[in-house]
Amino acid sequence: MKNIAIITGASSGIGEEYFRSLVSRESFDEVWVIARTQEKLQALQTYTDIPLRIFALDLSNAASADVLKKALEEEKPQIRYLICASGFGRFCAIEEDDPAVLQNMVDLNCRSIVGVTAVSYPYMAKGGAMILVASVAAFQPIPYIATYAATKSFVLSYGRALDKELRKARGARCLCVCPFWTKTAFFERAVAEKQVVKKYAVMYKPEQIVKQTWKDLKHKKRDVSIFGGTAKGQTLLVKLFPHRFVMWVWQKQQKL
């Protein structure tokens, strides 16, 4: 029985950093990597001698989860880590965006996570972990980033509930990672022609987010991982204040 890890969104950003960190920390029979671009996934082999199984898939397409399901049924591996890092955002008013793009965002950020975790669930190893990349945006409604924030709220809620089920049924767990602003290619797609976000309180690095993930996995009862004092402070404040006030502060800060 193969001992594997699966990483979605592995070709760039936080997903790529998870890949590089994981293969330097642990040994696997194979690492299964998923993203849209075959060439970028193939390039990951330069970082490790561990065999890679490449899935060039667009996870916003519902059929992609079926491809992964079939492969799992054929191999029947033990999954030590499932890292779901695929996703994208858009920073603009809903009326100024393409409805098809917004719906695609929901498909990738939400529905694909459900599909990938559901087909992987029966193969999770005891002591294994699912890691779902959510966002600090998950803790509050955010005008002009409305759809993205809502999708990440879904991921956070889903992941925390999934953690309870995994612990009971599989002896595994789920950790929701909630980055603050993080310097990746995410912004190339997120920022529309009209500049919405004018002020970033802080900009973290993917390495910091990933390093915090491994630290938080050592805490057996933890189901949420947040890196940085600014990020932790914001998540606390948005719990204390009414969301109407929180949204007003956001719009005031960004001059919206």
Give a verbal description of the structure:
Helices cover 46% and strands 16% of the residues. With 256 residues, the chain is α/β, with parallel strands linked by helices. The chain has one domain: Rossmann fold (3-Layer(aba) Sandwich), CATH 3.40.50.720. A 7-stranded parallel beta sheet has the order 3-2-1-4-5-6-7, with helices on both faces. Strand 4 (78-84), helix 4 and strand 5 (124-133) form a beta-alpha-beta unit. Helix 4 (99-120) packs parallel to helix 5 (146-170). The radius of gyration is 18 Å and the shape is globular. The N and C termini lie far apart (55 Å). 38% of the residues are buried. The mean pLDDT is 93.
Topology:
Layout: E1 3-8, H1 13-25, E2 30-35, H2 38-43, E3 52-56, H3 63-75, E4 78-84, H4 99-120, E5 124-133, H5 146-170, E6 173-177, H6 186-190, H7 206-217, E7 224-225, H8 229-240, H9 243-253
Parallel strand pairs: 1-2, 1-4, 2-3, 4-5, 5-6, 6-7
Helix pairs in contact: 1-7, 3-4, 4-5
Provide tags for this entry.
256 residues; alpha/beta; Rossmann fold; seven-stranded parallel beta sheet; 9 helices; globular
Q: Could you provide a short overview of the structure?
A:
With 256 residues, this protein is an alpha/beta fold. The protein contains 9 helices and 7 strands. The chain is 46% helix and 16% strand.
